[in-house]
Amino acid sequence: MTVQFSTLVIIICVGLATYGTRLAGYWLLRNVTITGRTKAALDAVPPAILTAVIAPAVFLQGPIEMIAGAITLASALLRLPLLVTILAGVGCVAGLRFMM
Amino acid sequence: MKLSREFRDGFSDIAPMAIAYGPIAALWGTVAASKGLSPLETVLMSLGIYSGTAQFVAMDLWHMGLPLAYLVFTLATVGLRHVLMSASVSRHMASFSKPMASLLLFWLTDEAWAMIERRALSKPVTPAYFFGVAAPLWPVWFGFSLLGALIGQAFGDSKAIGLDFAFAAMFIAVLAGFWKGPRTGAILAASAVAAVAAKLWIGGAWYILAGGVAGMLVAVMLYKDVAA
Question: What distance in Å separates the CA atoms of residue B173 and residue B132, rounded to the nearest whole number?
């Protein structure tokens, strides 16, 4: 149970940098009234980031993840509860990996 | 008790994700131990950095004996997507006090952010809801990091039961709620293409930022079309 000084410095520096990125957007936009194009750009952030995070996991791994992605999307569009949708995706991946 | 109701809503909304955090954190702890980090260093890193992406990238870089500045800079670029997330989520936090918002934003992980954006589609977001979402994730994250560091080899393969796909599945489910017609489709397509291209040709974690910025650009271009 030891902590090396250099590791502690890294944890503190990276931790502060990461916390900084989490605060930055809030502090930059807190007192700004957002309209027009800026609002359109910010409205696009949630769907665009959500898509970007999953795109490699769904499109670059192989057919199993693409099929599971399609089934998850279908469950979501059918308005199934969140947990059911997640289980459908996870179950599909597990089942296909078991079979292939 | 309206406040505790809000907390419970957040807690139960994120509970499935909290369960999925366990194996991921344990895997990270196992990797960290294999790189020579002590269990205490492992748990401190999960407590203080609290970002799966940054921590996995950090372990990729660990063995190379990199200069500190390079490591911090690289991991800060990995975290740049948080700036967009925090900007976007700040619009639902207008009623939060500044210290409260600043405290809660420490726990703004990808999954917590996605859940809060989802909540904002139907109801105002309260500090209690945000805290309810954050509360179960962090302890699971650092707790299972420690467990992975101590007894990682015993965990087996979480891929076999598809748990690595849980995050993608949750994001797809949340994503469906943002659909507002063909313009959303254009934003999603731009983001997906940019993210895949960046992953293939740039590497690292730039793909998230690339997709986010591409989606925003398309939204701005389409906005001009509408206004004209």
Answer: 20
* Interval B57-116: pLDDT, tens: 788 777 656 678 878 877 887 788 899 899 999 999 999 999 999 999 999 998 999 999
- The CB-side HSE value for B41 (13 A sphere, CA atoms) comes to 22
Nearest to B141 by CA among B6, B44, B35, B34: B44
- Cβ under 8 Å to A: B residues 2-21: 13, 16, 20
Measured between alpha carbons, how far is B157 from B145 in angstroms, rounded to an integer?
16
The answer to whether residue B158 neighbours chain A at the CB level (below 8 Å) is: no
- CA-based nearest distance A76→chain B, Å: 5
pTM value is: 0.81
Residues of chain A with Cβ-Cβ distance to B227 below 8 Å are 36
Residue type, B217: L
Q: DSSP of B119-172, one letter per residue?
A: HHHHS---HHHHHHHHHHHHHHHHHHHHHHHHHGGGG--TTTTTGGGHHHHHHH
Nearest CA in chain A to B168: A54
Model ipTM value: 0.86
Structure token digits, residue A89: 């995706």
